[in-house]
């Protein structure tokens, strides 16, 4: 699972050869969520409200980059890193 970003203790990753719809995985401590890239809906899991808010803010700023990283990982290529939320 390639890590593409890390900020405020949150790890963002995309799996290789992943299933549709395009999504990414966010992990904070022992909680995880899968989040759809196009509309940022949670597909599975949960995060604490503050961490989820940070993830949603970051993802809304980087949708295009997330889709590019998704395509790379889907094709078994190392996805590009994405700038963290600052």
Question: Could you characterize what this model shows?
Answer:
This protein is α+β, with helices and mostly antiparallel strands and 86 residues long. The chain has one domain (3-74). Helix content is 29%, strand content 29%. The protein is built from two helices and five strands. It has helices spanning 49-61, 63-74, and strands at residues 3-7, 10-13, 23-28, 31-36, 42-45. A five-stranded antiparallel beta sheet has the order 1-2-3-4-5. The longest helix has 13 residues, at 49-61. The protein is globular, with a radius of gyration of 11 Å. The mean pLDDT is 95.
Report the uncertain regions. Answer: none
Overall shape: it is globular
The H/E string reads: EEEEEHH
User: What is the makeup of the main sheet?
Assistant: 5 strands, antiparallel
Gist of the model:
The protein has 86 residues and is α+β, with helices and mostly antiparallel strands. It contains 2 helices and 5 strands, in the order βββββαα.
Descriptive terms for the model:
2 helices; globular; 5 strands; five-stranded antiparallel beta sheet; alpha+beta; 86 residues; 29% helix
């Amino acid at each position: 699972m390639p890590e593409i970003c890390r900020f405020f203790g949150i790890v963002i990753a995309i799996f290789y050869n992943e299933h549709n719809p395009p999504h990414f995985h966010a992990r904070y401590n022992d909680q995880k969520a899968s989040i759809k890239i196009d509309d940022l809906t949670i597909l599975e899991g949960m995060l604490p409200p503050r961490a989820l808010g940070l993830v949603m803010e970051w993802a809304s700023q980087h949708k295009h980059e997330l889709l590019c990283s998704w395509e790379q990982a889907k094709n078994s290529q190392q996805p590009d890193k994405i700038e963290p939320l600052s």
